[in-house]
Amino acid sequence: MAALDNIYITPEHELLRDQVARFIEREVEPHGAGWEEAGLVPRDVLRRMGQAGLLGLMFEEAYGGGGADAMTNLVFAEALSQATFAGFIITVLVHTDMAGPHLHHAGNAAQKARYMPGVTLGELITAVGITEPGAGSDVAGIRTTARREGDEWVLNGTKMFITNGVHANLYFVAAKSGPGKREVSMFIVEKGTPGFSVGRALKKTGWLSSDTAELVFDNVRIPAGNLLGEEGKGFYSVMKNFQTERIALAAMAVGHCTQAIRLTLDYVRQRQAFGGPLWNQQTIRQRLSMLDAKTRAARAFLYQCAWRVTQGQDIVQDVSMLKALTGELVNEVVMTCQQFHGGMGFIRETAIERLWRDAPVIDLGLDDGRPAEGDAGASA
After folding, report:
1. Does any domain span residue 380?
2. What is the pTM of this model?
């Protein structure tokens, strides 16, 4: 990793890593088990992240952000993913890399002035509503509708599997705004808007400290000014954000791989079996070495993708390959490492068991069922 860091990483990146590592050690690892029982990350923890400048690295400095590039954002996502509580990680990354960027990229000056300072400080937690029952994450197939009536838009429909859906304050919602297959628009919906409700909180196998919800829109009236970006161009706005999303999720996957290998190396060097430490078994050393090699290769690819984004290059194909690669890899690495722990790998409250529970959800998030950006112009 040192050689890779010499290519891409600056002293400022190292300082950011250290800052995130200290936050995780102090604020996350001692309390994460309780958050999993409660099913959410306390909002005061997110506010402390915001006050430390960690929730708006890529957003404009005028609104309290850091104005950072894709490489800095990747360093943050990877450092955050050294936590062993994936529910915490995804709560943050949805806010910073999946929901917040919709406001960052498509919001007008008035919208940013109203909402972005709260987003960067963690006072307003965000969620993005795209996935639906029956349509999954097929953006062109969504059924939630938006109808213009005078100075208002009226939203009707249901969203499903929405991360941060229960406790968010601000939602960026995709809805059909015209008859065309891809005539989709994005809208800003505030919590508490009449007709908008959390249908139910969803209980999951992994990401236990991440709140996930079904959202219901029943004749929800919002001001015309809550249209986010151009009318009818929301499909392309969603496609644009995939690049950021997939790099962040790939960083999360690589972080899980790194942590699983580290935990397993510590375990097999101490665990006594067959007359000595498990580390003495050539098969175990060989298997872990290969998993480490694959993880390092994926990490190099991940950093190359982020660097190319900073150079303004079109990396649609590369990011699609990255999501496929890291989604499979995180399951291979974590499940193998969990098996090397034997019975301890199945004990709740152990880090490797959490990683084992959470890895398939990362793969699901990476294999999101949406078309790659390059597919956006396939058919109208």
Report:
1. no
2. 0.90
